[in-house]
């Protein structure tokens, strides 16, 4: 039986792709590979594979993390692995639902190539999910456009929302870069506390994948309050963030409400 491997790093794409294959099709056992080792292995094999982020303009990782906000993007295809430590590019593409439309298209194209007899099924699923992603993007624009530009500033645990910031003109700050492994120095934390005070950042959030003590400390010493929890790199087992769109709506609403 034919099998397609989808090399990706997002829980949302994984959830979508595992449901994409029709029953008894050659792709009904399709799976998602997340690690760099498996990605390299599948490229060296003869197994058909797809890189879901292919063709997406990636944000270059800030290796010299200094807590300044970086909004620029770079014209590179985003086809690297996600290990949750520093790579060449920021892997958190899923924070921008407009980019997830490209993800979905890449996944559908790969399924169609591996299972052409069910092309109509995959095309229908892509069209349906594409509309859902478009609606999500429109919803986000509406919520964030209602927030004055000067108030679109957020502190989170690590830099997991760069693509969202680029899409909706929001400045995100964090004590850590795109990696969750390297801890910030005392000097860096002190500098960030000063910056939060100077910028008047009131929207402060913990993340579901990280210990919240660092954020709580920064919020306390800067005179802010932790406004809740954002879902950055993992879904929840139950609502509101047990699906990609559920996660995004939770994050969008939480951010928009906190920045007002």
Give the low-confidence spans: 8-20, 23-35, 63-86
Structural class: alpha/beta
Order of helices and strands: EHEHEHHEHEHEHEH
* CATH superfamily annotation of the domain at 93-259: Nitrogenase molybdenum iron protein domain
Continuous helix count: 8
- What's the main sheet like? 4 strands, parallel
Would you tell me which CATH topology of the domain at 93-259 applies? Rossmann fold
Radius of gyration: 19 Å
Looking at the structure, what is the overall shape? globular
**How many DSSP E strands?**
7
Helix fraction? 40-55%
CATH class of the domain at 93-259: Alpha Beta
CATH architecture descriptor of the domain at 93-259: 3-Layer(aba) Sandwich
Strand order of the largest sheet: 5-4-6-7
Strand content: 5-15%
Distance linking N and C termini: 54 Å
Q: Overall pLDDT, averaged?
A: 79
Question: How does this structure look, described?
Answer:
One of its GO terms (cellular component) is cell envelope. InterPro entries: AdhesinB, Bact_metal-bind_prot9, Lipoprotein_PsaA-like, ZnuA-like. Keywords: Metal-binding, Signal, Transport. With 260 residues, this protein is α/β, with parallel strands linked by helices. It is 43% helix and 10% strand. The chain has a domain of 167 residues: Rossmann fold (3-Layer(aba) Sandwich), CATH 3.40.50. α3 packs antiparallel against α4 and α6 crosses α7. The protein is globular.
